[in-house]
């Protein structure tokens, strides 16, 4: 399981907890990462609320600390991925929704949160919502091989094998080392040899379907940053939860 590492310029108590959580997560110990991530979020939420109260007292426009905003979003997303690793899908979904709500309020596009939420929706059987999150990513970042891979997986889960193959090929054209897309294509071709050339004219009956697809849940970087505004000319669609989206992620 990989995690977003948001570059921040100051040292604080919440960052120390965040580093502890990241260390545990990188060691594949998601349960041990939950406590420090939660401690970091408590500190961040308190700082966020104090900032809002100060602005209200001064009757001035709220000016959010970008470091606090980065922390609130990235720590929630990283804790969400820990919950996914523990199969606590409803808790993961809540963290991704909270991160995306905050991102929307500040015109931030967070790809990681969308990827994570899409995967949580998929596990919970909400294929249409999972698909919409991938489409929202591709509307802003058309060359997101992770979103293409996951969209292919969702289509495969829905039985749309031909369409899934197209998405896997598109993902591999963007990143030839995307293992989930390559594995999923190989598995499908093993069961449907005719699809090796994307031919859907003859699909012989089989005794069992291909194995469940693998997903590129997110991308990993040690120097991620959140843009405080969406890319130019981008239009973020609103999904059924009323969240618009846009950060950078992870593999489970």
Spell out the key features of this protein.
252 residues, mainly alpha, two-stranded parallel sheet, elongated, disordered N terminus
Detailed description of the structure:
- The chain is an all-alpha fold.
- It has a two-stranded parallel ribbon.
- The termini are close together.
- The protein has 9 helices and 2 strands, in the order E-H-H-H-H-H-H-H-H-H-E.
- The chain is elongated, with a radius of gyration of 19 Å.
- The N terminus and C terminus are likely disordered.
- Helix 4 runs antiparallel to helix 5 and helix 8 runs antiparallel to helix 9.
Helix and strand arrangement:
Elements lengths: L3 E3 L6 H14 L3 H28 L8 H20 L3 H17 L5 H13 L3 H14 L4 H13 L3 H14 L4 H13 L29 E4 L28
Parallel strand pairs: 1-2
Runs in which pLDDT lies below 50 for 5 or more consecutive residues are 1-11, 199-209, 219-252
Instruction: Give the spatial strand order of the biggest sheet.
Output: 1-2
- The run of helices and strands is EHHHHHHHHHE
Question: What general form does the structure show?
Answer: elongated
Quote the average pLDDT. Answer: 77
Structural class: mainly alpha
